[in-house]
Amino acid sequence: MWSVIKGRWTSPGLELRMNVKNYVRFEFSSMPENVSFARSCVGAFAAQLDCTLEDIEEIKLVVSEAVSNSIIHGYNGSTDGKIEVMASIFDNGSLEIIVKDFGRGIENVEQAMEPTYSSDSSRMGLGFTFMRSFMDEMDVISEPGQGTSVRMLRFFPSQNHQAMA
Amino acid sequence: MQVNADFKQVRDTLVVRISGELDMLVADQLRQEIDRRLDNTSISTLILNLEKVSFIDSSGLGVIIGRYKKVSAQQGRMYIVGACPPVEKILHFSGINKLVPLYRSEKDVVSN
Asked: Is A92 a catalytic residue?
């Protein structure tokens, strides 16, 4: 049973992103070798949006952070865990990315999302800061002992949508 | 996977030329490789050459900030050279550039 500890699952664009235009979904074992695979996949998927190379780099970064968090914190470095990634493009041009693990979960999500907080000092606790800064929305759902799910959303309004607005 | 790093030491300056993507896959090994040299030899200047690094995330930044702390504790200096625009953007965003000066090339460090 997932519980919303910090969540804002509605968004200004909710009514507009009811229709999924395209999506990819994949799962992989919690091996560091797969971090690069995951960010490259989502980056390639995002390339069909009306976005710049700089945007793609930011998408790759946030996926890298979320997947690394799952491996390091969710599974404590163990490589036999499972991580799911789902990326969806909605017909208003927004991109949603969900990274989900079934690891130990986060006791205190609020604390974990603090810019200076890190349970692993070598990573500076910057992961959540990047995710929050480069995406328009970010929510974390976690249940100790069950796992953690990070959902991120970014709007890429196309010229058509801007013209309609 | 081996971290792709080339180490060159001239007197008390250690130059580390890294290539590829600097993420959690290579972070630990790179940290150990650099620390082994910092611990075993007298290094007063550490230069990280990131010319061939195409991607960096917080795991890679962790390696840099950790080495900065180590070098600083030994009264040494550290520089980053050659970061491409996407990598440089992340270095600026994290504030590392305020601790570790960024230069275009190894020559620029020497001439400054």
From this structure: no
The CATH number of domain A17-164, selected from 3.40.50.300, 3.40.462.10, 2.60.120.560, 3.30.565.10: 3.30.565.10
Residues in chain A: 165
CATH number corresponding to B4-111:
3.30.750.24
Q: What number is the ipTM of this complex?
A: 0.93
Predicted model pTM: 0.89
Q: What is the pLDDT of residues B9-42, one digit of tens each?
A: 999 999 999 999 999 999 999 999 999 999 988 8
Residue in B closest to A63 by C-alpha: B57
Please list every residue in chain B whose beta carbon sits closer than 8 Å to the beta carbon of residue A126. 58, 61, 94
Q: Flag if B58 and A126 touch (Cβ within 8 Å).
A: yes
DSSP chain A: ----SB-----TTGGG--SEEEEEEEEEES-THHHHHHHHHHHHHHTTSS--HHHHHHHHHHHHHHHHHIIIIISTT-TT-EEEEEEEEETTSEEEEEEEE-SS--S-HHHHTSTT--SSGGGTT-HHHHHHHHSSEEEEEEETTTEEEEEEEEE---HHHHHH-
Note the pLDDT tens digit of each residue in B88-98: 999 999 999 99
Q: Is some CB atom of chain A closer than 8 A to the CB atom of B4?
A: no
